[in-house]
Structure formats: structure tokens, C-alpha cells
Amino acid sequence: MSYDPRQLPPLFHIDVVAASTDGPPKPSGNQGDLVTSLLNQLVQGQERQNKLLEEILKQTNVVHRQRQYELGQWKQAHPELARHCKRAAETLSRVQNEFLQTLTEEVADSGDNLLDGEFMLHEFVDRFGPRLAHLNGVLQMLSQLGHNPDTAGTSSR
Hints:
By secondary structure, the chain is an all-alpha fold.
């Protein structure tokens, strides 16, 4: 059985010979001019990227400063609550350390089972994952609210 490309339907047939060999216009001159031109284009592209990154950084800084200012205002309006948040964050930090200690001991004790059995891995994640995620979220919030007002929000307003 011989292969005849004319027997393929036109959907699967590409005529390479008929394709145009005209590519993008080549600049006149030597190879050095071509390389210089390409390098100039790269530099211009990087300069555009740098300008865009500077704009993104400015916008991010504006949002961050606004958030710090609002947080500082809240702390001034609720100084006692901010102190309570700080104490709660310190206590929860100790709780988190104990929880992480328990978690790491569990991993050390059942590491082989976690590697070998998907059921054991799912049990482990179900047991520790949600609690750790929620604890981290609460701790982060309390830490931000209880952070020392003298050092927070002092950047340019």
C-alpha cells in the first residue's frame, strides 16, 4: 500500500510549495545594523515595561497608604479595643504555635502513611487544614488591628 497525498481530503492537505516565501521585509544593510535595531527595540520595550511597573507601584502605594491611614484612624477612635486585639493576637499566636507543634508531630508520626495512602492524606488535611486556615485569618486580622499605633500608619499621608 503506497501513500498518495492527493487522496487526502483538502481539509488535511497543506500545499507547502505554493506558500509564499516572502517573509517580513529585511532591513537593508549589514547584520550589525539588524542587531542594533533589534536591541533598540528590546530596550524600548523594557522602558515601556518599567514605566508600567512604576505606575502599578504608585497605585499599590496609594491603596496601601489609604489603608494604613484608615487603620490608624480606627485605632485612634478605639484605643482600648486595639489593645485588646493586641493581647488576643499574642494569645492566639501561642495557640497557633501549639497547634503547629501538634501538626508537625502528627506528620512525623504518620509520614509514611501520608505518602502511601491518599485516604490518610485527605484525613490529615480535613483535620488540620480548615482550623489552620481560619486561625491564620483571625490571627492576621487581630495582629493588624492590635499593631502598635505609634509605628503603624506613620508613612506619608
